[in-house]
Amino acid sequence: MGKLYDFDGMFDERLSKYITEYGTKYKESEWEEVIPELYNKFGDTVVRAIGKTPREYYAGMSDDELVKTLRAHIKQSVPVSEFLCEAIENRDGCVELMLPLLDGSEDEMTYAIGILGSDDAAVPKYIDIISGTGNDDLKEMCTDYVKNKADLVKDRALALYRDGVECERMMEILSRVTERDEDVFDMLLTAFRTDPDNIPMHASYLAVYGDERALPYLLDTISEEGITYPEYQELKIAIETLGGRYDVERDFSDDPYYQTIKAHSASETDIFSAFEEGEGDEE
């Protein structure tokens, strides 16, 4: 394993000098685009003390050295540059070497999830993390990736749902299953019919799953007198997503959420009207 270099720290020093010299050249909004461009360029700039560019430095390492270097950076609290993560991501041989980090510290897990993404080899481990006792941020990261590969974990997700483990996340994952499955459909439909406190969430899952057999149930629910405006909106979207229609005019003038939206819209209209009326006053 090579020496640990704080390339981000080196970049920050150069950036500080650059801003001092060219600070007035760009507007604040423009700096948001300029800085990433400068960082990318820095990756191909020779660092005198090393005699290589940051990308060349990591390119000279083996797969094993790259992963060991990442772990060392994390353990010794040396900032991890995007160039190191980029080098690992570009090596197919690093996938298996990165998997053990998913059982490591929270920082190791965070970097491993970010680098491995939705790689098939990592997906089963992500389900372990989601169903475990870790923090919600890591679970959310894993859920986002598992959704893209839901078919790989369908049976496991169903079993966890039936055991009452992270039910909402399991429904979110299972709604993305592309292979039609009666157990998945029955689970999503039953959840929709038996949980009146979360109608928008369940309606959205049925819409994502895409089975038009859910339409009669969605139409029955949207026709109920007691539904709220947010529920109505999500149900209508789900119905239309599945190819149905609901054109009945409903009165939600007493709904607090509807009143808030209407008041906000009216406020915006007043602002723009005042602006338009003020145009041409100064001549």
What class do helices, strands and sheet pairing give?
mainly alpha
Outline: extended
Helix content: 55-70%
Radius of gyration, CA atoms, in whole angstroms: 26 Å
The portion of residues forming beta strands comes to: under 5%
Strand elements, count: 0
Overview in brief:
This protein has 283 residues and is mostly helical.
List the helices and strands and how they pair.
Layout lengths: L6 H16 L5 H15 L11 H6 L3 H13 L6 H8 L4 H5 L7 H11 L6 H9 L4 H11 L7 H9 L4 H8 L7 H13 L4 H11 L5 H8 L6 H13 L14 H23 L5
Helix pairs in contact: 4-5, 8-9, 10-11, 12-13, 13-15, 14-15
Q: How would you describe what is shown here?
A:
The protein has 283 residues and is mostly helical. 63% of the residues lie in helices and 0% in strands. The chain contains 16 helices and no strands. The chain has helices at residues 7-22, 28-42, 54-59, 63-75, 82-89, 94-98, 106-116, 123-131, 136-146, 154-162, 167-174, 182-194, 199-209, 215-222, 229-241, 256-278. Helix 4 packs antiparallel against helix 5, helix 8 (123-131) packs antiparallel against helix 9 (136-146) and helix 10 (154-162) packs antiparallel against helix 11 (167-174). The model has no long low-confidence stretch (mean pLDDT 91).
List the main descriptive attributes of the protein structure presented here.
283 residues; mainly alpha; 63% helix; extended
